[in-house]
Structure formats: structure tokens, C-alpha cells
Amino acid sequence: MSIETAPPKTPRKRSAKPNGQWKVDGTEPLNHNEEFKQADNGLNVRQRIEQIYSKEGFSSIDPDDLRGRFRWWGLYTQRRPGVPAGAHNSLPPEEVDDEYFMLRIRLDGGALSTEQLRVIGEISRDYARNTADVTDRQNVQLHWIRVEDMPAIWQKLETVDLGTTEACGDTPRVILGSPVAGISAEEIIDPTPVIQEIARRYIGDPDLANLPRKYKSAVTGHPSQDVVHETNDFGLVGVVHPEHGPGYDLWVGGGLSTNPRLAERLGAFVTEEQAPEVWHAVTACFRDYGYRRLRNKARLKFLLNDWGPEKFRQVIEDEYLGYKLTDGPAPPAPTSPGDHVGVHPQKDGKYYIGAAPAVGRVNGRLLLKLADLLEAHGSYRLRTTPHQKIVVLDIAEDHVEAVVAGLKKLGLDPSPSVFRRSTMACTGIEYCKLAIVETKQTAARAIGQLEKRLADVADQLPERLTLHINGCPNSCARIQTADIGLKGQLLPGEDGEKTPGYQVHLGGGLASSDREDPGLGRTVRGLKVTSEGLVDYVEKLIRRYLATRESAAETFGTWAHRVEEDLLQHEWSDDAALLPAAR
User: Fold this and answer.
1) Distance CA 208, CA 212 (A)
2) Would the pLDDT of 375 be above 90?
3) Whole-number Å distance between alpha carbons of 450 and 247
4) Do residue 359 and residue 448 come from a single domain?
5) Same-domain pairing of 392 and 315
6) How far apart are CA 519 and CA 108, in angstroms?
7) Structure confidence at residue 13 (pLDDT)
């Protein structure tokens, strides 16, 4: 078997207009991003951070390192406080950058020991002003990090086998994994060995550290399909082959942002033994054939869209694997949510408990208290989830009640309202340079107000009703796949000034949701809400759904795609009849 790990010196048939495909157009850089990546591998910047920048300070950092290669080690500059919304499009970057960093701690599969959790909590407390967010990529994200502190932070992380390698940048980013891998009695196959082997072989490999753009992976063996594989560049979903037994179904080419596209099946069955090399084949194919000339066309989804799944499968088999993959069955539709909230039995007789921090926001002191709580009850493992949740593992039956009470006391609710359970938000304008509006606090306020306003119909609400809030069009919070997705933008105000608001997406869903026909959300022409009007609109919309759904079994997503547009607008003729009960 022969697997290519570097671009060929002689390009293949050259296209009429170069797209920067290494195997077609050659490797000559066609933009500045490609220039700085070829000039010096992003992985090399750590040595400069430790030996130069941490000693000489922020002002000593080379611009291509600061806004480029630092990402290869999980570091982004934060938004400077006071920079106006949208200013990143007009101001020079040095006026938008703060002299502090956001830092992503890479957690493949979301797996943590309490010892590791304690170290993250200590780093948050000592170096990050007590900030911490659980992201929908299963990472933990810190803020207010100084470059001077990075050597100490890396040293502390690495004492417990944690790191930040390729947490950002044009690299293979964190591998999403089932939060209940290896413990669920329902599991088809445990993805842990595959995730660990991919990370061991390939993360930090210089041959894969210059991809056209970011590359996202997801692996699950749970029937709830709990890793949102449809939004990832590479996905493996547990299936049972009628002849070969448990293995994986291969998905490729998902991604959202401004050109959303869900991943497609290649129709290939992948065994556990094949999975790491299949991951490498797909990744190397993206490296060699991905479009590099234009950044907004550089994701794998654009290549798959042009090639189609049949050609893509043929190329990875013929040029990278050297053998044909077996055809395989599609995974059956999930019958349960994939967020794992609540108390659930493990296959060993113990229990796991999924708890919901408000939109993933935690802090260092809370994480330290969580470690204390778990260890006091004999648990030393937990997982983060792609839904900004935390799942604690290995709770003995006679400790469940005490752990549930302790989690609630920490603000990590194992029996949350539908709104706390199903609301997600990206980082937003508080820290992110690309964001246009605030998200985390807006989402937290919305949760509290919706819980009160819709208390009278709480028993009629579905188990999950997802509300995702994003600060810009990039969809870090997966707005197009939510029941109600809100994309941040500035709207015209009454006084002529711009006011924070959102474009509305309705009825999105994935295989792991309760939507009958998974797909992207529906947009209605002109349908936008201000930040101030967000809760009023969502309340009205949910009441209309409850009042006009065909039956209690009709999901919000199905309803939102079925009804006429006027029912989804701000005002509707029957609103007066629906709203008084909430007051």
C-alpha cells in the first residue's frame, strides 16, 4: 500500500484558471496565506513563542506569526475592547487586535480526567481571569491569555497529557467523538481506539499541517449519532455490516458558514483497523486537491460539490489507499437525542450524568469544584459534548442523587428546561474579532425569560427545541441546523443608527435531531429580529407552533417547513389570542 504524504514535484493536467490545487496547478502560492504557510510550517512557531515572544512581549511578534501561525497552537488574538461592530472589515488588524489571546485546549473525543480538569481550572484561575467556555467542538476555550505565560501554560498542560497542537489553523482540528464512548450499553462500536490512533499518528505531523483551510473530523459509534457528523469534513458513523459486523459508514464534505453544505455518504464501509488510514487518505486528498487560491472556496465541501461522492471515493481508493473499500449500509435514523443530558445507565452498572451549563459558559473555579465533586463520589472521568454540555461518568447508583444535587448547586443542571438544554451560542463580540453582536449573555437572558414566559405551556413543549445564536455569518454555533437559528448582523434602527440583530433561520435539523427530514433551516425574506426583540419573537413563534401543529408528534422543524411564510413573521393575525396566557 502506498500513501502519498507530500505534493508531487510535477503537477498533473493544469486547469485553465489555477485554483491552487497542488496536484493540478503545482505548489506556487496564489495568496499571502499560502505564502506564509510555505515560508515556514505553522508548527514551528512554538519555538519562537517560547524562546522569543514570551520574553520580549507582544510587540515583538511577527505579524505572520501573530495572525497566522499562532493558530497552529490554538492561539487567536482577542478583540480589543471598544472596537465597534463590523470594524474588522475597515480597520487595520493592529487596531482590532487586543494584546491578549483566546486559547483553545484540544480535547479529542472530549475526554478528560478529573486531574486534567483540575489543571484546566487552575490555568483558567491563574492565567485567564477565571474564564472558560465549553465549545461545540468539545474543546475548552480560555481568554485573556498573555504570550508571556504560554511556556508555563504548555508545561502545565503537558504534565497531564493535554495540549493545544493544531487546535486552530489550516490543520486537522479536534476530532469530535461520542461523549459516551466505551460506556453506553446502546453503543454499536467504541470509537475511542480510532480517535486515539488518528491523534497519535497524524496530529502534529508536518506533512498534514498545511491544508487549504481548517479540517474537521467526527467519529461516533452511538446510535444517536451524537457528533453532528453532517457538518464535518470527515465523519465516521457506527453501523453493522450484514457480513462484516460493526464498523463505520464514511461521510465527507460537510461545513456551514456562508455556504452551508451537509456531508454526503460515500457508501463505503470502514472497519476499525482501516479507519485511521481512511482518515489519512481523505485528509491528504484535501491537502493535494483542495482549492487554495480563494480562502472562501478552500473547504473540502467545495471540492466534493464539484467532484461528487463517486469520484471522490474513487480518488481516495486509487491514489491514496491502494485498495477498494467495501460497500456498506446507511446508518438507521436515530430515535433519541444525542446530547446525553440527564441520568443514564452505563453498561457496567454505573451511571453517567449529562449536565447543561448555560450555553457552555463555565469558569476555572467551577471546574475545580466539579473535580472535587466527582472525586468525592468515586468518579475520575468526564466528557465534553458537541452541544456545549458536560457528561460525568462512572457514578455508582447510591451516589447518583448526591452528584445530581452537587451539579445543580454548581449551575450544571442535569434536568434543565428545554431552553437551557437546547440553546447554544458562539463566543460573540465579547472576545471574537469577527463577531458583530453579543451572543453569550444574550442567550443566557433569553433562556431565563423564555422559561418564565412559556411556563404555562411547558408541558406541551418537545423534549428538545434548539435555539442557536451566532455573532456573525460564520456559523460557529451551527445556526442553519437549529430549529431556530439566529445569525448576527447590524440592522437599521429607528433613529437611523445601526442596532444589533439577527437574520432568522427556521427548521434546521440533522440526523441526530428529531426532525423527520434532516436538512438546513429555512430563511424567510426580510425576517430579522433585533437583540431587544429576540425573546418576544421566539415566544410568539413557539406559541404559534403549539397552536397550529398538526399533532403533538409534529416537530418544530417539520412545522416550520410546512407552514406559510406569514406564520413565521413577527406579526400574525391570531397573535392576540395566543399571547395573553404568558403575561
Assistant:
1) 10
2) yes
3) 42
4) no
5) no
6) 27
7) 54
pLDDT at 7 over 50: no
What cell does 354 get?
449529562
State how far the Cα of 413 lies from the Cα of 403, in Å rounded to an integer: 11
Q: How far is the C-alpha of 13 from the C-alpha of 23, rounded, in Å?
A: 8
Q: Is the distance from CB of 337 to CB of 109 less than 8 angstroms?
A: no
Boundary residue ending a domain (321, 336, 351)? 336
Residue 309's domain comprises 181-336
Q: Is residue 60 part of a domain?
A: no
Q: Identify the bridge partners of residue 184 per DSSP, sorted by sequence position.
A: 346
Same-domain status, 402 and 546: no
User: Which residues, 6+ apart, have CB-to-CB distance to 217 below 8 Å?
Assistant: 172, 173, 175, 176, 198, 232, 233, 234, 235, 279
Q: Which three cell numbers stand for residue 493?
A: 434602527
One domain, residues 412 and 430: no
Q: Are strands 361-363 and 140-145 parallel, antiparallel or unpaired?
A: unpaired
Last residue in a domain, options 286, 309, 336 = 336
Which residues lie below 8 Å from residue 349, measured CB to CB, with a gap of 6+?
Answer: 397
User: Domain holding 576: CATH number?
Assistant: 3.30.413.10
Domain match, 470 and 360 both: no
Q: What phi, psi does 413 have (nearest 5°)?
A: -85, 120
Task: Find out whether 315 and 289 touch, Cβ atoms under 8 Å.
Answer: yes
Contact indicator for 143, 129 with CB cutoff of 8 Å: yes
pLDDT tens-digit profile of 312-371? 999 999 999 999 999 999 999 998 899 999 999 999 999 999 999 999 999 999 999 999
Q: What are phi and psi of 568, to 5 degrees?
A: -100, -5
pLDDT surpasses 70 at 5: no
269 within a domain of the structure (yes/no): yes
Same domain, 260 and 387: no
Is residue 86 packed enough to be buried (19+ CB in 10 Å), middle (13-18) or exposed (0-12)? middle
Angstrom distance (rounded) from CA 133 to CA 142? 7
The dihedral region occupied by 507, where left means phi > 0, alpha psi between -120 and 50, and beta the remainder, is left
- Give pLDDT, residue 515: 54
CATH of the domain at 383: 3.90.480.10
Contact status, residue 132 vs residue 139, Cβ threshold 8 Å: no
Query: How far from 561 is each of 185, 370, 479, 558, CA to CA, in Å?
Result: 35, 41, 16, 5
Q: Which residues pair with 167 in a beta bridge?
A: none
Question: For the chain, what is the domain count?
Answer: 3
Q: Judge if 578 and 530 occupy the same domain.
A: yes
| Cα gap 149→157, rounded to integer Å | 12
C-alpha–C-alpha distance, residues 476 and 137, integer Å:
9
Q: Could you please report the per-residue DSSP string of 327-377?
A: E-PPPPPPSS-SS--EEEEBTTS-EEEEEB-GGGEEEHHHHHHHHHHHHHT
Closest of 266, 246, 253, 264 to residue 325, by C-alpha: 266
Judge whether 415 and 342 are in contact, CB under 8 Å. Answer: yes
Q: Please determine, for residue 259, whether its predicted confidence score (pLDDT) is greater than 70.
A: yes
Could you tell me the CA-to-CA distances from 45 to 3, 55, 60, 61, 140 in Å, in that order? 28, 14, 13, 10, 22
